């Protein structure tokens, strides 16, 4: 999938605002694209409030820029269970003012909160605010840290 320029409030290559129950994104290859918004944007979902499985998915050569809640895969997550397996993020450039991460920009912790499961996924040659971040190999470390 080659996404050209996408502008909006909640923006994602796949879906801007996601509320479907138990969504599965599988075998998707986003080969390039530009996303630009103020808040809530991510490579897959801009905002999600449902359980999601992201499996065998790659985001390559994308520019994702906004102010708040900017993430490589998910911009903002509200009370969801996210499972990320066998997925890659490569040569992605994130630009944001606050609440950003190569995996997920920000999340709520209200109610049952969020749970994350990340396995067999990797990243390399990515940039946040024009600074190259270290290659992480397995990206499990990125959930708790800005970058790696």
Task: Describe it.
- The protein has 148 residues and is mainly β.
- The protein has one domain (2-129).
- It is 0% helix and 57% strand.
- It is built from no helices and 23 strands.
- A six-stranded mixed sheet has the order 1-6-11-16-21-22, with no helix packed on it. Strands 5-10-15-20-23 form a five-stranded mixed sheet, with no helix packed on it.
- A hairpin with a 2-residue loop joins β21 (127-128) and β22.
- The radius of gyration is 13 Å and the shape is globular.
- 41% of the residues are buried.
- Residues 137-148 have low confidence and may be disordered.
What is the structure about, briefly put?
With 148 residues, the chain is mainly β.
The percentage helix is: under 10%
> Mean of the pLDDT scores?
74
Strand order of the largest sheet: 1-6-11-16-21-22
Distance between the termini: 27 Å
> Would you tell me the structural class of the helices and strands?
mainly beta
| Tally of separate domains | 1
Please report which band the strand proportion falls in: under 5%, 5-15%, 15-25%, 25-35%, 35-45% or over 45%. Answer: over 45%
Counting copies of identical and different chains, the oligomeric state is single chain
Shape: globular
Largest sheet: 6 strands, mixed
Number of helices: 0
Stretches where pLDDT falls below 50 for ≥5 residues? 137-148
How many runs of DSSP E, i.e. beta strands? 23
Q: What string gives the helices and strands in order?
A: EEEEEEEEEEEEEEEEEEEEEEE
Return Rg in Å.
13 Å
């Amino acid at each position: 999938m080659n996404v050209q320029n996408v502008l909006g409030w909640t923006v994602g290559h796949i879906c801007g605002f996601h509320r479907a129950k138990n969504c599965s994104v599988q075998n998707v290859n986003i080969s390039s694209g530009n996303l630009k918004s103020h808040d809530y944007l991510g490579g897959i979902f801009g905002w999600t409030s449902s359980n999601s499985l992201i499996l065998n998915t790659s985001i390559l050569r994308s520019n994702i820029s906004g102010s708040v809640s900017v993430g490589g895969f998910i911009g903002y997550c509200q009370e969801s269970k996210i499972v990320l397996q066998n997925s890659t993020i490569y040569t992605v450039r994130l630009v944001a003012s606050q609440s950003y991460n190569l995996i997920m920009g920000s999340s709520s912790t209200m109610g049952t909160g969020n749970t994350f499961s990340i396995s067999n996924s990797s990243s390399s040659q990515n940039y946040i605010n024009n600074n190259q971040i270290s290659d992480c190999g397995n990206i499990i470390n990125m959930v708790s840290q800005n970058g790696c």
